[in-house]
Structures are given as structure tokens and as C-alpha cells.
Specification:
The chain has twelve helices and eleven strands. α4 links the parallel β1 and β2. It has a single domain, classed as Vaccinia Virus protein VP39 (Rossmann fold), CATH 3.40.50.150. The structure holds S-adenosylmethionine.
């Protein structure tokens, strides 16, 4: 069977909404995962302008499931992305209420606070893409793990940001270390492209179709297929020439944050100094290297 036959949702769908470049290379895998899994409840921690969120909604709709997608974010910004203008949230709210009024909900809360709104065992698919320090990602996983259902799957973005590609500041990214510490306990898969995506099957009774997918994507040909499909999405985004917003300063973060790079700069936990946070090396798609380099140059200036 060809990869197109093995991964029909990834082969057939193309994203409708692309707003930022950092995650979009994983949209084909998200389409395939959601198409097979048909999750009832999807929660995203870190929605921002909605590139990943919209892909989850598109996949739920296209696969004809009864799923609902919740996007959790304060839309206030953070120490690296800067302080968001209210227009960012307003645009997301307008988008979701017009395009996905029945299957999506935005929750404007801190991740820990939002967890109280979900019953234990109720979340099928969780995407962790908020603050990327070791402490923050560990906290997000531990806070939300009890919320995961028996079919539960957790996605981690940014497991692959390396010192080699991003300079010394990359050492403060903690997602790789969190994922590596967890993956020995769970069935898992991982992708290197587009800053890396970790997939962890945390449910006690996962769907057979999901377990098959986890096995299938371990093959080199499958990894190459998803990297190529992801690259096509990234190239399409570049061809759109979408201008990324410049955000204002946040807390003590200094001058304007350069959002073209910020999501892959290390983001701090409130009240913690950047220098005190943990990180881990990683490999980045060549097309993203210049963005990433600018992010870390900015970060270095901020912490100097
Ligand atoms: C990397 S961005 C998310 C990118 C998004 N998934 C996409 O596809 O473009 C991280 C987001 O997490 C939010 N965030 C970080 N820590 C948070 C927290 N503890 N509570 C709520 N929002 C948080 C930030 O406001 C930011 O919008």
C-alpha cells in the first residue's frame, strides 16, 4: 500500500486556516490521527492565532465525528511572545463562532484554572503547546493527565529544538526532556520535522486504530511522507506572504517581541527568570532556521 492509501486523511485534506508557521507541518498527522480516532473531546493548551486549533476542528468536521474542540489560552502573551493585542483574541473568537460554532469553544483562562472545567477521564486528545520550559510542560502534563480518558492521547509540540540549530538558548527548552522521561511508560511516536511533535498514548484502553497508526508512523517511509506533507503546508504558508504581528513588551521582557520567532524562543513561567529555566537540545526544518535564529538572538539580548 502507498502512504496515500495508508494515511487517507493526511493525503486528502489540506488546511483551511494558516496563521503562523511554527506548528503547521504537523497538520497532516493531526488530520490522520483525528480521522482515525474520532475523539469526543479535544483540548488544546496554547491556541494563539489558531493554526493547530483550526486544523483539529477541520479534521473533526471532515471525519464526521461528534467531537468538540476546546482552545485554552489567556491570549495575554508571555515573556517571549510579548504582550498580545486584544485584536488577536477577537479575531480568533470571530473565526470560531462563524466557521465552527457548534464544534469549538475558546476558554480564556490559565491552563491550571481551565482544568477544573473538565471532568476526570473526559479528554480524548490533549495538545500541549503553551509555555515550553521543563517545569511548565511537566506541570501541564501532570495537571491534565487525570482528565485523560481511557482512549487518551497527548501531543507535545517542540520536542525537537536543538542547540545546534538554535544556539545556546535552546538548552532552556524542556519539551524534549519531558517527553523522553515519559515515553518509556507509554506507547508513543515522534516526528522531527517542524520543531518536532511527540505523541503519547496515555489511555488504558486505546483504540486499535490509534495503536496501528503509532506503529505505522515508526517506518522511515511514513516519517518521510509526513515530513513531505508538512513541508508542502509550510511552503504554501510561505507563498501566502502572511505578515506576522509584532507584539508589545510583556513584563520585564524589554522591547517589542518578534512574533515571527517567539514561539520557538524559550518562554518563561510567570515570576521565574529566563536564566533559571530548564531546556533541552534539538533539529529544525531548514526553512525555519532563520526564524529560529532570530528568536534566540532576541532572547539572548533580552536576558543579557
Ligand atoms: C506557542 S503559542 C501556541 C501556538 C498555537 N498552538 C499555534 O498553532 O499557533 C503558546 C500560547 O500559549 C499561551 N500560554 C502560555 N502559557 C499559558 C498559560 N499558563 N495559560 C494560558 N495560556 C498560556 C500563550 O498566550 C500563547 O498564545
Amino acid at each position: 500500500m502507498s502512504p496515500e492509501q495508508t494515511f487517507p486523511l493526511a493525503a486528502r485534506l489540506f488546511p483551511e486556516r494558516l496563521k503562523s508557521p511554527w506548528w503547521i507541518g504537523h497538520i497532516p498527522f493531526a488530520f490522520e490521527l483525528i480521522g482515525r480516532m474520532q475523539p469526543r473531546t479535544v483540548v488544546e493548551l496554547g491556541t494563539y492565532s489558531g493554526s493547530s486549533f483550526a486544523a483539529f476542528c477541520q479534521a473533526v468536521e471532515a471525519s464526521g465525528g461528534n467531537g468538540h474542540v476546546y482552545g485554552v489560552d489567556l491570549w495575554q502573551g508571555d515573556v517571549h511572545m510579548g504582550s498580545f493585542d486584544e485584536a488577536l483574541y477577537q479575531e480568533m473568537a470571530a473565526f470560531t463562532s462563524t466557521r465552527y460554532p457548534t464544534i469549538s469553544t475558546l476558554i480564556r483562562k490559565d491552563f491550571n484554572e481551565a482544568a477544573a472545567s473538565f471532568a476526570e477521564g473526559s479528554v480524548d486528545l490533549l495538545h500541549i503547546d503553551g509555555t515550553h520550559t521543563f517545569e511548565a510542560v511537566t506541570n501541564d502534563f501532570e495537571t491534565w493527565l487525570p482528565k485523560m480518558s481511557d482512549r487518551g492521547v497527548v501531543l507535545f509540540h517542540d520536542i525537537n529544538v536543538t542547540e545546534q540549530n538554535a544556539g545556546p538558548a535552546a538548552l532552556k527548552f524542556g519539551v524534549r526532556r519531558v517527553f523522553d522521561s515519559l515515553k518509556t511508560n507509554y506507547a508513543h511516536a515522534e516526528f522531527d520535522h517542524c520543531f518536532g511533535l511527540g505523541v503519547l498514548v496515555v489511555g488504558k484502553a486505546p483504540d486499535a486504530s490509534v495503536m496501528r497508526l503509532i506503529d505505522e508512523v515508526k517506518a522511515d517511509a511514513a516519517k518521510a511522507f509526513f515530513a513531505e506533507k508538512g513541508d508542502a503546508v509550510s511552503k504554501h504558508f510561505e507563498s501566502l506572504g502572511i505578515a506576522l504581528p509584532q507584539h508589545g513588551s510583556y513584563g520585564n521582557s524589554g522591547d517589542c517581541a518578534d512574533v515571527s520567532a517567539a514561539p520557538h524562543a524559550e518562554r518563561g513561567t510567570a515570576g521565574q527568570s529566563i536564566a533559571s529555566q530548564e531546556m533541552q537540545p534539538t533539529a529544525v526544518a531548514p526553512s525555519h532556521r532563520s526564524l529560529l535564529r532570530r528568536a534566540f538572538d532576541r532572547l539572548r539580548r533580552m536576558v543579557a
